[in-house]
Amino acid sequence: MTQVLFFGCLFVAFSPAIAFFFFVIARNSQLILLSIGGSFFWLLSILLASIWWYIIPPMRSSYWFIIPFSIAFQELFRYIFYRLYSWGFNNRPSLSQIQQLHQEQLRLQFIRDQQEKDNNQKLPKDENKELRHEQSLEYEKDNSSLSSSSISNQSSSVNNTDQSSSSSSKKKPDGDEDKDISESVTDINARLETLSARPNHTLSSAAIGTGSGLTYGFVMFGSILWDATGPGTLFSPACPSTNLFMVSAILTMCIILLHICNSVLAFQGYRSKQYHIVAFVLLTHFIVSYLTLLNQPERNCVGSLVPIIFITIISIIYTFYNLLRSDSITKID
Amino acid sequence: MDVLFKLFIVLIFIVNIIRCDITPQVLSISDQIYVDLEYAFPCVRILTENGQFGCSSKMDGNSGTLYLVDSDDSLNDLMNGHKNNVLLVLDANYFNKTIVNNIITKKIKIEGIIVLTDKERTYPYSPDVTYPNKKYGLYPNSQIAWNPNGDSFSYQDFQFPIFSTDFNYSYAMRNLSLSNREGGYPAYGADLRSFMQASQDAETCLRRGFCAPLGGKSIWSTFSKEVSQQQDILLVMIPMDSTAFFHDLATGADAVAYGQVVLLSIMDTLSRVNQSQWNMQLIFAMWNGEKWGYLGTSKFVDDLLNFNCTQVSSQDPTVCQQPVNYDMTFETIDFQRIKMIVELNQIGLPERTPNNQSLYYLHSYQPTTVSKQMQDVFVGHNQDNGTEIQYLVSTATELPPSSTMSFLKFNPQIQQVVVTDHNMEYRNPFYASHDDDVYNVDPDILPHIVKSLSVIIDQLAGGNNSAIISANPQFYYTMFSCLLESFTCTYVDQYLNKYPFNPIPNFYSSIYGTAPYNQFNTIETQFFYNIMWNITTNQMNTTAQCKKTSDCQESLPGSMCLNGMCMLSNTHYHDAISLGLGFDDTTSSWFIQNSSYPIFVESNWDYTDLRVYLLSNPSTEVVFLIMGIFELTISIVIIILIKKHLSKKYKLL
Known about the structure:
The structure holds two protein chains of two kinds.
Chain A: H1 2-23, H2 29-55, H3 63-89, H4 95-122, H5 125-148, H6 150-171, H7 178-183, H8 190-196, H9 201-225, H10 244-272, H11 275-291, H12 302-325, E1 330-331
Chain B: H1 2-19, H2 29-33, E1 35-36, E2 40-42, E3 46-47, E4 52-53, E5 62-69, H3 72-80, E6 86-90, H4 97-105, E7 110-115, E8 162-165, H5 167-181, E9 187-193, H6 202-208, E10 211-213, E11 215-222, E12 232-239, H7 253-270, E13 280-287, H8 295-306, E14 311-312, E15 320-322, E16 338-344, E17 351-352, E18 358-363, H9 372-380, E19 389-393, H10 404-410, E20 415-420, H11 446-460, H12 473-485, H13 490-495, E21 513-515, E22 518-519, H14 523-535, E23 537-545, H15 552-555, E24 560-562, E25 565-577, E26 581-584, E27 589-592, E28 601-603, E29 609-615, H16 618-649, E30 650-651
Parallel strand pairs in B: 5-6, 6-7, 7-8, 12-13, 12-16, 16-20, 18-19
Antiparallel strand pairs in B: 1-29, 2-8, 3-4, 3-28, 5-9, 9-29, 10-28, 11-13, 11-25, 14-15, 17-18, 18-20, 21-22, 23-25, 24-25, 26-27
Helix pairs in contact in B: 7-11, 7-12
């Protein structure tokens, strides 16, 4: 019967995060990379936290002392990762911007074609024929060179867009450089740009949060979950009639979701310099971490479970609220 | 200089960190779930040439919910109920062949049995056969039932594990299973792991190398420096090993341990008398493996008659390389010179007469005319002043199962007396059971029997020290507590530089070894060897102190370091292994060369343990799993819906 417990806990703890991962993040290669990066940075932070725990032996069992440092390390690494991310990604056009550029390009092409058409009608018939033939040859050449030497082309085009957008993005580091970019559009390869485009900032930070959250789940809960496969069960020291694995599974689910929300919120806060959002993240992180201490003997696990679930729901709502009001998401007119 | 000082400070800091590193160990999750019982004694599998008996768990153990059977009501509930995965916790009274086989045949799926030892069994019971070692003795067709309480439960093959545990853990297990019965939540379960590698029969498992032959080491010892070929020999001996359903609990208080105490006390007493008057040589012997078809004595007698060393070791003339034998001193004993045997066999529980005399019985091989003279010596002491011991000639027509039989097979003219506490049937109610413990013997008779037998043996040897013989009460009482109560006494500390894991004295012979050159020696045997060495020491270096035996090789070659002194003694081990087994050097495995001899081999195992844990409610787990699957589908649906909704209003990538 204990395999039942194992899979029950596995589903309860990980299903929202796994579903989010497969239905949203796995659809974009860059999001996957970002989530792996997120998990790596979270591991680094927890490595530092565990070193800190190790070098101060008298405080090893005093969790109230360890928790603030662990949170500090995690939030520090979240900020470092934000800096790294904004250094590499903020100046890249997003996919929607690329699409916009592409449409702009097509529109210009159309206008040029129209003008040519008007000119050609004025020219004599034979010349017109020859000229058109030459033009088509040139066009084919152009196309083949573009697709074969893609790397150089790509880099040059990236540089182009970077340079073009840098002037505007320096003023506004956010994603709303759409209007300015269209002015400097000259010639871009739409397919390659689509591949190298960054996802929007919200999804990126959600991917980072999913990466760190899932890593948290596997490191903190996966290691103890394996013991649930044996014939015996551990009961919560706080609620002696409640299965500890079940309590832990629910807590893990909440904390993974909180990781995603916190990541989205914190990145948005840093990006738009709205530091009250960052403060909210820190606060929920502290409160949730200290609430888990209620699972110790002679406390009450209900006192930890209910508020944590409540905080998770609040966080999710607050994230959506912020997200829809934010500038990183583009509204369809 | 400043740099050095800073380095020093840093070093001190680091050292402090390392020194402070003595924090309470954080238990792993599995350590928190499972509590290993420190003293869990498994029933193990033994194989013969025809099959197997004993117990084995499944490879990854058997687990179940504890169910206590301590009354007829609880037994009936079990029989009539429909319970699955039951781990029976049997009160001592409910552990016998009838009840267990009744449960098995009822097709109740039991995962295993835990036998409690916190309460004594209230009725006589022996799991051994009614005539132990019948096939290998002098009377293979005998009709006598020496052990009428025996139901041969030990020789049954079980497909599930059976464990026992010590007093304290038994008490705890009883309470846990009582809580289960009263519907306590969470319920308690246990996990028994004693997977036996060997199966089928001895021949198969020896070939596969999954088992090792039963046996051990016998010990013989004498006061003189050398055994003379010219003098007759009086052999005073006991069987050393006992057995039980759970081998780790084979104290065999009446069966062997009491005899061990008396034999060692006799040796101790006689070591202080004038031995110059003796016209016979006294050899004291403890035979090992006797419960498994007289392995010790038959091997000894066979070696005395037939041993022929073809290749003596170049370094040590007492070591033979082919066939392997580490001590050839036994060759100084001439089998034909063994004229008398006194065997002490089950002497702990004599019958008391109304005037407080204890009755001992003298058994001899028919016709008794051979041993009449010896019996008369024993009986002659019945009239001594103030004696509490009465020797009576047994009315039994046959010799009870005894080690003497191996000698009589080759020389029926040896005078022999087997001293026992029973006339016909065993008086021992718990023969070869773990219930044969210290409460099963009579400690009050110990001073009298030691003194009486010492006097008689001195007289048989030709001495006349009866007036001055006095036993040392400190010696025999300490020895009694060592060998019957707890094997953690002062003598064990003194004579054995190892500490026993299991404080319950057990004299199960265990295995002989994986090869003749890789022998196994139980610490109980080592203890006997060292203490006999100490008693019969004939030369010692009192001036030089020693710490280990290697310190003695210069001052007194061949001596052993005991109590900080180098001592020389004529005490020897002798192999106790079945004559039917041979060792094949090319394949490094034992093989059966003659199946008319006893063949008993013990299976190998990796580990055995008994873990107790809490069980959760299976229905809660199923509900939780359904919740999890529901949660997965809900989250997929929500994500798809949100994606759909948002992608209408926003550009998502």
